[in-house]
Amino acid sequence: MSFLIITVLLGAVMLAMAFIAIYHKKLIVAVIATGALGLFASILYLLLAAPDVAMTEAAIGSGLTTIIFFYVLNRIRTDAKEEENEA
Amino acid sequence: MEYITLITGFLIILAGLWAIMTRKNIIRIIIGFVIFDTGLHIVMVSIAYVRGGTAPILDGSVSIADAAQKIVDPVPQALVLTAIVIGLGVTALMLAYAMKLHQEKKSLNIESFKDLKW
Amino acid sequence: MELIGAIITLLGSFVLLVASIGLVRMPDVYNRLQVGTKATTLGTIMSLIGLVFLMPQWWGKLILLIFFVMMTSPVSAHVLARASYFIKIPFSSRTVVDKMKVNAKAMKIEHEKK
Amino acid sequence: MNKLFILIIIVALGSMLYPLVSSFDGNSELSSLAQFYAQPDNISKVNSPNLVTAIVVTYRGLDTMGEVTILFLTAAIIAFFLKKGGTTRTLRLNSEIFKTSAKLLVPIIVMLGVYIFINGHLSPGGGFQGGAVIASAVILMLLASPNTKLKHNFFEALESTSGLVFVGLAALGALLGLGYLDNAILPLGEFGKLFSAGAIPVIYSFVGLKVGAELSNILNKFQSVQSDK
């Protein structure tokens, strides 16, 4: 029964994270929300008796994906600044 | 429990699809793909769940003889395991494309790329 | 033995509770980082020490975990606070001392000419 | 108008997915394929306690090979796309605390990754997880000191060698008449010990090295095109 409550809560939080990732104005917050979605998904895998998948998702879905997104955002931001300086 | 995770997975898939189809920013479209991936993985793992099952690792608590009665289905888990790693590679590839596109046009709006339209 | 472990774990969780209240109460980023790091590190370490008393056969792994927490958590908070100082997140109005101001100019350095 | 159209499409897809939910009544027993894998005969034939590892490396080894190929292709395409820009980079100096602790932590994290993929057949974990952990150690090193030049040739040589060993071990099984990617080319050993399960730990270790090298390469490419201002 307690597992059921935890699962419902996790599902609600994950849907909220997906909503934030789609609709928040700042891209940085959206990327962080995507990473948090991956982290909650890894907890869900652990509840579903899949520890291997949970480890992979925790390392890749919330760690490396977010870092790659931030590298790209950083590059794009500096490019936009250069353009403003020229114009 | 597996019903709830299944429904959550399908809803997350639909949310990702909505993000892919309505957003204009390329980075947000890629975020939509990531969300879609996560939902798909949740659906596959929850289909693999067997009621009251334990993880498919045969240590002290599960012996070889009654493995078939106690463990959950390992096949979709193995598929999801590789799919997550592929997802990282594909996401990195899409982001590299996005970076190149931004260098060309100085814009991330998908509507400013009309070169093949006439 | 079990009683000592339970008491230490309870104290650790109390410290964690105080930390989470402080996260809501504190006025700006730097204070929140301080609360969220110092108290959380202490609470986690105390819970792990309590677990050493409860499960004596796990002591090696638990001491390794304490080492990891002590290595990573303060350093990450330090890096976060530093980054938020450099992108000029404002202090709360009651801040008096800013010791970082003196050498902020010396922190910029040119890297990698090509 | 456009959004309404998209909404209709999504609602249609959702109603197509609805029968899948309503007809799903949960599993109370394993599917026949999984029961085949979980039979005591087949478990003792593979001799690996972690069934997921057994499936990834042996039964579905061809899938793993294709997956590794896809990862290699994406790494190659990213390396082709992201040429290094020749701009002057102005970065803030990292503090001594961060640098020192990163120097202390990186070897430990790499060791943890190696532990994860060597013990992949006994406990949760394996080549992919270990490779991801190694890549996160590399990203910590790159964040602490952005000017370190990763030895590109070393990573490429590591990746190619591990891929060749993977394919070679797989083909050795076919040469010995056991079947492609069979794990019985090495002695099976005792159930639950480190040196058991035949070729599974060896193959998974090389997969882990390959995945770690590829992910590190991708991250290094993304890092080296940065131009902080």
The figure for the number of domains of chain C is 1
Largest beta-sheet details of chain C: none
Low-confidence stretches of chain C: none
Q: In DSSP terms, counting alpha (H) and pi (I) runs of 4 or more, how many helices of chain C?
A: 3
- The residue-averaged pLDDT of chain C reads 80
Percent helix of chain A, as a range, is over 70%
**Structural class by sheet pairing and helices of chain C:** mainly alpha
* Oligomer class: heterotetramer
Radius of gyration of chain C: 19 Å
Question: Based on DSSP secondary structure assignment, what is the total number of beta strands of chain A?
Answer: 0
Structural class of chain A: mainly alpha
Per DSSP, what share of the residues of chain C sits in E-state strands of 2 or more residues?
under 5%
- Summed up, the domain count of chain A is 1
DSSP strand tally of chain C: 1
What order do the SSEs of chain C take from the amino end to the carboxyl end, as H and E?
HHHE
Helical fraction of chain C equals 55-70%
CA-based shape of chain C: elongated
The run of helices and strands of chain A is HHH
How far the N terminus sits from the C terminus of chain A, by CA atoms, comes to: 62 Å
In short:
By secondary structure, chain A is mainly α. In chain A, α1 (2-23) packs antiparallel against α2 and α2 (27-47) runs antiparallel to α3.
What does this structure look like?
- Chain A has three helices and no strands.
- Chain A is mainly α and 87 residues long.
- Chain A has one domain.
- In chain A, helix 1 packs antiparallel against helix 2 and helix 2 runs antiparallel to helix 3.
- Chain A is elongated and about 55 Å long.
- Chain B is mainly alpha-helical and 118 residues long.
- Chain B has a single domain (2-52, 69-112), classed as Helix Hairpins, CATH 1.10.287.3510.
- Chain B has four helices and no strands.
- Chain B has helices at residues 2-22, 26-48, 67-70, 74-105.
- Chain C is mostly helical and 114 residues long.
- Chain C is built from three helices and one strand.
- Chain C has helices spanning 2-25, 29-54, 59-86; one strand at residues 108-111.
- The model of chain C has no long low-confidence stretch (mean pLDDT 80).
- Chain D has a domain at 47-76 and 103-223.
- In chain D, 68% of the residues lie in helices and 2% in strands.
- Chain D is built from nine helices and one strand.
- In chain D, helix 5 packs parallel to helix 9, helix 6 runs antiparallel to helix 7 and helix 8 (152-175) runs antiparallel to helix 9 (200-224).
- The chains are: A mainly alpha (87), B mainly alpha (118), C mainly alpha (114), D mainly alpha (229).
- Chains B and D meet through helix 1, helix 3 and helix 4 of B and helix 1, helix 2, helix 3, helix 4 and helix 5 of D.
